[in-house]
Amino acid sequence: MNQNPPKLPGFLRNYLRLLVPLVIVATLANGIGLVIPSAIAKKIDQYQITGSYSFSTILLELIGITVLVAIFTLLQSALATYTSEKMAYDLRNQLAKKIAQQSFHYVSTTTVAKLLTVITSDVDSIKGLIAQGIVAIFSALLILIGSSIALLSINVTLALITLSIIPIIAL
Question: Which stretches within 51-155 are classed as H helix?
């Protein structure tokens, strides 16, 4: 059996047309979520200046933002599931072809349970990586960058003190 399996980045390259929209939708879902604190801050500032507020306007804006976040999160979940299932299906087919090409001796000496366990666990791990891992990485990066920008726009000194802790947390 080939001891040099294909690398994951090369495998993922075949699915860029599915992964790019997934990352875009995840970015939109998280990016819109970062608007909520800013919208609340603007309404508080407006109240401090004018002394009045419109509860219905505030409520409608927050509901609108929340609905947009929910739509993009649902779309993100659907895209992540479709992408991971498509990749798992293709990977299982590739593995089945590879096993079918093996010598009779290899297939007869390797137990079916061992083959099924390896195939199932590896494919499920890759499926989980795609469905959750890639989206989580981009979401976390976007939230970190967006929150950092928000902090810097509010108070540079406080933001720099807060952001200086990130390398310590990363360890």
Answer: 55-100, 104-109, 112-128, 135-154
Please give the Cα distance from 66 to 63 (Å, whole number): 5
Residue with tokens 């960058």: 145
**Cα gap 134→26, rounded to integer Å:** 10
35-73 b/e (C-beta count within 10 Å ≥ 16 → b) = eeeeeeeebeeeeeeeeeeeeeebeebeeebeeebeebb
For the beta carbon of residue 150, count every other beta carbon within 10 angstroms: 15
| Residue 97 identity (one-letter amino acid) | K
DSSP 158: H
What would the two tokens of residue 34 be?
């970062």
List pLDDT tens digits, range 56-114. 888 898 899 999 999 999 999 999 889 888 888 888 888 888 877 878 787 777 777 77
Q: For residue 68, what are the CA distances in angstroms to 19, 39, 146?
A: 21, 14, 18
Phi and psi of 102, rounded to 5°? -75, 160
